[in-house]
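[recover] target loaded
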């Protein structure tokens, strides 16, 4: 009985099957962040103004080499290269093309209507056919612009205020610019309103500058106006020096010329333009469509070089000095 009782108490224990340890759910593979490719087209060679674009990108939190890479192309004044640069960018699957000069816009647009184009500077893009309107440009092109209509009248008025009895103005222009006809048309219209005669001189390469200024002297020009062109800006010191050598009061579209010895400027700072253009690149790589981004037109500024004025025997009127944003003594 004892044995039986012990046996009765020895109830077999059924072991619970051991469950396998629960494995963590597989995590999705982390995709590396896209590194954006920014193609940059320069009309001449690289200058300090172009650092404005990189400065703007940094200010917006983008790190060069990590978030984006730059692919530079320099035309060196050979504007026929713009189309080739654009074709190369298309082949490389560039994400955004930045053009630093108005002369390159049309050539790039002829190559691609899909890659976003950011204009670091342009001249009246609506009249040029690059945009439907400033508020909503449409297509694949946006950026910053300067209207030539305002500057033409202002340039003439400033020169007439400084140069007594002004009757004839020399105009330096690059015939390879895509805006050549429009620049001539606007300049002629303002000159006719003011009763002034214009003397034209073309310059495609730096070696043309001496010939152009000699042409102004032979034609008895009493002042010279340098039109907006990246080649001219790149050679700002030579252009300002020739104007002073030929005793020609000079007016320019960018303050850098005045710092180089030019008499007066009325226009924009390209470095500031390029810095602000970075915001367009930023919005595009975040998903915005270029055609939906309004084209910006920053205000213009006046810079004066009183040292050059004294060398030419001229006096800058107080009303100009009072509104000047920069005066070089």
């Amino acid at each position: 009985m004892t044995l039986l009782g012990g046996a009765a108490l020895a109830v077999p224990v059924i072991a619970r099957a051991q469950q396998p340890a629960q494995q963590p759910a597989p995590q999705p593979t982390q995709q590396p962040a896209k590194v954006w490719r920014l193609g940059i087209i320069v009309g001449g060679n690289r200058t300090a103004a172009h650092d404005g674009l990189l400065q703007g990108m940094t200010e917006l939190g983008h790190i060069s080499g990590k978030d984006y890479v730059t692919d530079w192309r320099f035309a060196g004044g050979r504007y026929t290269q713009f189309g080739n640069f654009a074709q190369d960018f298309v082949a490389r699957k560039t994400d955004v093309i930045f053009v630093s000069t108005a002369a390159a816009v049309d050539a790039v647009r002829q190559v691609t209507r899909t890659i976003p184009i950011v204009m670091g500077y342009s001249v009246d893009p609506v009249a040029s056919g690059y945009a439907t309107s400033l508020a909503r440009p449409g297509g694949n092109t946006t950026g910053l612009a300067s209207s030539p209509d305002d500057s033409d009248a202002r340039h003439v008025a400033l020169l007439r205020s400084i140069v007594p009895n002004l009757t004839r103005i020399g105009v330096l222009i690059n015939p390879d610019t895509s805006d050549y006809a429009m620049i001539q048309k606007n300049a002629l219209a303002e000159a006719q309103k003011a009763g002034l005669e214009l003397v034209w001189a073309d310059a495609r390469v730096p070696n043309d500058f001496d010939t152009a200024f000699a042409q102004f002297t032979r034609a008895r020009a009493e002042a010279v106006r340098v039109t907006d062109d990246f080649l001219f800006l790149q050679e700002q010191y030579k252009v300002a020096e020739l104007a002073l050598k030929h005793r020609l009061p000079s007016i320019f579209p960018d303050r850098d010329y005045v710092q180089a010895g030019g008499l007066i400027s009325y226009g924009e700072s390209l470095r500031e333009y390029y810095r602000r253009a970075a915001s367009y690149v930023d919005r595009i790589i975040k998903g915005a469509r270029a055609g939906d981004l309004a084209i910006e037109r920053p205000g213009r500024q006046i810079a004066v070089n009183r040292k050059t004025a004294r060398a030419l025997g001229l006096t800058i009127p107080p009303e100009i000095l009072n509104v000047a944003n920069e005066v070089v003594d």
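[recover] notes: The two ends are 126 Å apart (CA to CA).
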